[in-house]
Amino acid sequence: xxxxxxTLLSWTRLRIAPRRAAYPTGxxxxxxxLAAERGRKLSVGIARLDGIGDWVLTLPLVQAVAQSPxxxxxxxxxxxxxxxxxERGFADHFIPYSGGTILAPPPPGGLPGKVxxxxxxxxxxxxxxxARHSADFDVVxxxxxxxDLGSNARAWAAGTRSVIVxxxxxAVPTTTARERREHVLLTDAVSNATPATHEIEHxxxxxxxxxxxxxxxxGYGADYFGVRRExxxxxxxxxxxxxxxxxxxxxRQWPSANWRQLADLVxxxxxxxxxxxxxxxxxxxxxxxxxGFGDRVHVRADVPLAALPELLASADSFIGNDSGPLHVAxxxxxxxxxxxxxxxxxxxxxxxxxARFGPWGNRAQVLQPATGLGRCVTSCTARTAHxxxxxxxxxxxxSLRRVRGDA
Length: 407
What we know:
Blueprint: H1 4-21, H2 31-38, E1 42-47, H3 52-56, H4 59-66, E2 71-79, H5 83-86, E3 93-97, H6 111-117, H7 120-131, E4 139-142, H8 150-160, E5 163-167, H9 177-181, E6 188-190, H10 199-210, H11 220-225, E7 240-244, H12 256-269, E8 273-277, H13 283-290, E9 297-300, H14 308-313, E10 317-321, H15 324-331, E11 336-339, H16 354-357, E12 364-367, H17 393-404
Parallel strand pairs: 1-2, 1-4, 2-3, 4-5, 5-6, 7-8, 7-10, 8-9, 10-11, 11-12
Helix pairs in contact: 1-7, 1-8, 7-8, 12-13, 12-17
């Protein structure tokens, strides 16, 4: 008996087959070739249904597409909450995605969040949303290399009946049998079977397939967000280091007591103030970290996402867990220190591995436990802060000095 997934795939194949059959064979994924075949510039959509950090690491692709002489317009398809961050000069249009996401998965996250995000129902929603744009795109690019919301992105792209360029799920070791079958939804499947490669390097493979320049310079986000790297100051007139003590998984969150100790060290040994950032719903935790430090520690739980790049570009430096703001900071050229729960001797291809998702820039330090605690072998598997707790505040301070050039 056919499963609901097989039904969706069959339905999708039927919907896209007539349009695909009209494409000449051998064109491949190069945008210049497809534009020449069409006799006009292309309308291109870039669909990624992930969070802030994933999208920040995708911005070089958006820039390269937008600057291509073969492209007339560039659209980004992303969760609605990211509009303020992504709707910038390089993106002509922002199309919000309202189907299943994993931006706020049910506790403890991980597999339960993924199951919800890629369920049959959210796949249907994605396909229908894409179908509303069936006349809008010549090409849809899917920059997600591995799993999570890859299925929904492929369903959305299939609904548009466009040329679809993305990574071949058969080359990804962690994909399910169903996800591997979805290679049939891609007009051009780019094969990259190196799991432990940083996401920027995966992106270079996609750029090559599209016939776009592979060069990605450090600080690329400053161009995308339209900000300049100029040091600012707090109301006290002192330069500041930004702390972001939060992350979407509890295991990624360094304990608040450690952040307080680090704030004390920074205040006593440097000329920096500390600015704590987070969402409005996280204000209480930020206030608890700032308590007792007077005007040397500032809480900013009111920064709109659209204003985050400018705030970070003016910072002396940044310290944070594995989270979106860390990638924004790194992308605009700020020296960053990342505190990771992933053991150095763990799986380098894991979703928490800095080898794949660490800060990408010239001035970055990553702190990790040497090995996992207890049953954590290839990665930290705890539901609360666990392996990350072995990292000490004085180690973070030393890393801060190094990225600032003080040591």
